[in-house]
Amino acid sequence: MQRQKSFATESATLYLVGTPIGNLEDITMRAVRTLKEVDWIAAEDTRVSRHLCNHYDIETPIFSMHEHNEFDRIDYVIELLSAGNSVAVISDAGLPCISDPGARLVHHVTEAGFAVVPIPGANAGLSALMASGLEALMPFVFYGFLEHKKPAKLKQLQGLQQVSETLIFYESPHRIKASLELMLEIFGDRQIVLARELTKKFEEFIRGTLSEVIKVADDLKGEMVIIVSGYVAETVDYSMISAVDHVQQLVDSGMKEKDAIKAAAKERGVAKDVVYKEWHNI
Question: Which residue intervals define the domain Tetrapyrrole methylase in the entry (predicted)?
Fold first, then answer.
């Protein structure tokens, strides 16, 4: 077990700093102060981060840490911390580690015994969720980006098909239509909200069913958040059919007889033996 008292340590600290997701005003005073006070900034893209730093007169030296070199940077960051240098991690937009680099680094830094302190900030998923207008926001599942290749993406969506919580995804413009079409195939025509260009001049929310939003997907630009309403099980009055017909329907759908009897009993709210005896005419 490890207990971290974030502000009662004399060793160097790793800070995870939230940055704006589009509008440069969406950064906290604490975040700006932290970026000025640390010894080093590890940035996902130094070009993007220098724009932010220049805007707020942050002169702290920057080095890159992105998905392709994060593993190689772990030892370097731990060396900096061991030498007494505090380091801030920032992504291009939003929160480090959340659909962005940083999680592996944080794991190794905590294992090395250094404090890791979050500096909260903007988040696209939660910003889209709170303005979505969906009736049921809570609970929700944040999924982030789906896999790029269709077979892997299909498997991911099939695993989420009967999740009753509201689902939050991130997607890029050149994959948005294909992802929405696959969601329609797997989820059915659910209510969704597509939020794009959050906090920027062309911020837009598109509310409707999957089939409706797909019709405008070709014209959409910018990074996007997809909020999908959760799975709602169909209510069926099983008193209208016999237990034998119920089991037969499940068998006809491809279920094994033993499993069909068990499933029918659960759906009818009776003991498995009751359905078993009716099925076998005992």
Answer: 13-213
